[in-house]
Amino acid sequence: MKKYVLAIIATVALFSLAACGNKNTVVETDAGNVTKDELYDAMKSQYGDAMVQQLVEKKLLEKKYDVTDKEVEKELEKIKEPFESDEEFDMALMQSGFESADQLKEEIRMNLLRQKATTDGIEVTDEKLKEFYDENKDMFVEVEARHILVEDEKKAKEVKEKLDNGAKFEELVKEYSTDSGSVPEGGSVGTVKHDSQLVPEFIEAALQLKEGEVSEPVQSSFGYHIIKADKRTDKTFEDSKDDVEEKYLQENARPYEEVRNELLKEANIKVNDKQFKDLFKVEDEEENDDEQDNEQESKQDGDDDEVKDNEDK
After folding, report:
1. What are φ and ψ of residue 269, in 5° steps?
2. d(CA 160, CA 176)
3. Which of 103, 178, 186, 190 is at 20 to 30 A from 262, Cα to Cα?
C-alpha cells in the first residue's frame, strides 16, 4: 500500500514539475540550486519503474473498464464504517501512509478496475449465487464478540470454569485478560466476519457460537481465548444478495497477473526510454508450457535411467 502511495506522490510531483513553466529552479541555496531536471532525474531513478508500470496499467484498464465515482464512494464508506469518527478515520489514514482521502480513492479506483478485469466474463445467475450461498453460509454470518485472552491453557480452563459457575464475563475480563486494548470495552472485539482482520482460529470459533454462548478455550498465536457471542446475525440470501455476488466473483476471479499479461500483449506497447525497455516484456505462455514439459521429460528420463541402473545392479 505504501509503495503505491509513494508512486502516486511521485507522479503528482512530476506532473507539477511539468506545469512550472520556464522556471527551472526548484530550490535555491548558497551551495547551489536544485533544478527541475535534477529532481525529475532523481525521482525517475527512484520511483520510475513502479510509476510507469502503474500509469500504463491504469490506461490499459480504463480503456476496457469503467469505474464510477459512485462506486468509489461506496467502497470508501465500507472502509470508513468501523471508525467511530472522521478524526479516527483520518488518523488511520495517516498511519497507513496516505496524505488524504483522495489518495485512498485513487487506490480504491485502481483496485476496482483490477476486480472488473479479473471477473470479466464470469456468468452470474440467481441459481449460481444461491448455490454459492448455501455452500458458504459462514461468509454471511456476523457475530458481536468479546473475549478474555490469557497466556496458557491452564489459566484458560480456570476462567472457563468460573464462567460456567456464574461469574460475570466483564469482571473476569478485568481480572484475567492480557488484551489491554479490549479490557476497557469489556473485552469487545467488535463485529467478527469471515474476512475480519483477526487470527483465523478466533474467527472460526466465533462464527460457530450461538447468541449468548461462550466458547471453550481457543488457542492462537496470541495465547488462549475465551470468546462470548453477544449477538449473532445470519444473513439470508435475499438480504445479502449483493454481498453474495461480490464474494462469488472474488472466489471465481482469474489471477490478476494472467489478466495483466493479456492486456500488455494486446496493447502494442512501444517503449521509447531505455530505462523502461524491459518493463512490459511478457513471456509467451506456450513457451513456458513447452519449457515445463521439457523439464518434466528430462526428469522422467533421468528417473527411468536410475531405475534401469538399479535393475542392472
Report:
1. -80, 130
2. 11
3. 103
The string of DSSP letters for 108-170 reads: HHHHHHHHHHHTTT----HHHHHHHHHH-GGGGEEEEEEEEEESSHHHHHHHHHHHHTT--HH
**Residues with Cβ < 8 Å from 4, sequence gap 6 or more?**
54, 107, 110
Label the pairing between strands 141-150 and 25-27. unpaired
CB-CB contact of 221 with 178 (8 Å): no
Element (H, E) at 231: strand 223-234
d(C-alpha 252, C-alpha 123), whole Å: 10
d(CA 153, CA 52): 53
Q: What is the mean pLDDT of residues 235-251?
A: 93
DSSP state of 85: S
Q: What is the largest CA-CA distance in the chain?
A: 84
Instruction: Work out the pLDDT band at 19, boundaries 50, 70, 90.
Output: very low
Which tens digit of pLDDT belongs to each residue from 52-98?
888 899 999 999 999 999 999 999 998 998 788 999 999 999 998 88
Owner of C-alpha cell 520510475: 48
The answer to whether the beta carbons of residues 48 and 80 sit under 8 Å apart is no
Distance CA 65, CA 109 (A): 11
- In order of their start, the domains of the chain are 2-118 (no CATH), 134-234 (3.10.50.40)
- Predicted confidence (pLDDT) at residue 289 exceeds the cutoff of 80: no
Single pTM value for the model: 0.66
Number of Cα atoms under 13 Å in the Cβ half of residue 21:
1
Question: Taking a C-beta distance cutoff of 8 angstroms, is the pair 148, 222 a contact?
Answer: no
Rounded CA-CA distance 223/210 in Å is: 23
- pLDDT surpasses 50 at 188: yes
